[in-house]
Description:
GO molecular function, one term: oxidoreductase activity
InterPro entries: AhpC/TSA, Thioredoxin-like_sf, Thioredoxin_CS, Thioredoxin_domain, Thioredoxin_ResA/DsbE_sf
Shape: elongated
Helix content: 55-70%
Organism: Neobacillus citreus
Order of helices and strands: EEHHHHHHEEEHEHEHEEH
Strand order of the largest sheet: 4-3-7-6-5-8-9
Keywords: Disulfide bond, Membrane, Transmembrane, Transmembrane helix
Protein name: Redoxin domain-containing protein
Amino acid sequence: xxxxxxxxxxxxxxxxxxxxxxxxxxxxxxxxxxxxxxxxxxxxxxxxxxxxxxxxxxxxxxxxxxxxxxxxxxxxxxxxxxxxxxxxxxxxxxxxxxxxxxxxxxxxxxxxxxxxxxxxxxxxxxxxxxxxxxxxxxxxxxxxxxxxxxxxxxxxxxxxxxxxxxxxxxxxxxxxxxxxxxxxxxxxxxxxxxxxxxxxxxxxxxxxxxxxxxxxxxxxxxxxxxxxxxxxxxxxxxxxxxxxxxxxxxxxxxxxxxxxxxxxxxxxxxxxxxxxxxxxxxxxxxxxxxxxxxxxxxxx
Length: 300
């Protein structure tokens, strides 16, 4: 999975290209209808298309309620930060299609025109998806070669850049036991830096919980480092873990040293570390279960 980082927002390239494809299709249809039909019909068609896209977006966002009701109940903020992913997109497409056809007939848009518009829209979305698939395949191939070279060159270099060896550390977990990052070598690790007061961290945690449960027995680990120096009440951490039913290791950064080493300025910040202890990806901002799964599957 390719991810673009914009500030504290991590956006999947596939959704970005799909959106670009649909917007291009929208303006192609607008130009075509304006040249071939009267102005009044052109306005009706354009307004309908815009409303359909807006409806589709909200169905996609809201589909999380249907697909992951337990997550939404535990953390309503999930609706702000996340979508229904690939399954939600299918629901959004179906809902938008029904709305467009029903509303189009109601406002007297000719059936042949409706069919042509749907065909152009579908083609635009397909072009966007194909662009992603082609770019991803090429990028993945190039990245495999580059990663081999990077690991060879930088695997002994300790740092927080992709290709660096993740800095080791030792912290106490909430049970008072000493845990080192190196204890998890041989596993794919998500190193997550978070705090109980952080809204996107709260939204992310139910996704992490479900992801962790699905990955049992697959040599995948989540190491959640609480930025304890930023907590008003450090005792709140243990209660937070109980309230959210977290079963992965939760460590306490009581000195703030790990936050500094891993540059956790905006939280949550997560590092995907491969089985050799090499940093594969850094994500700033909340992640849903689908993004975590795709990124973990893309690691060795």
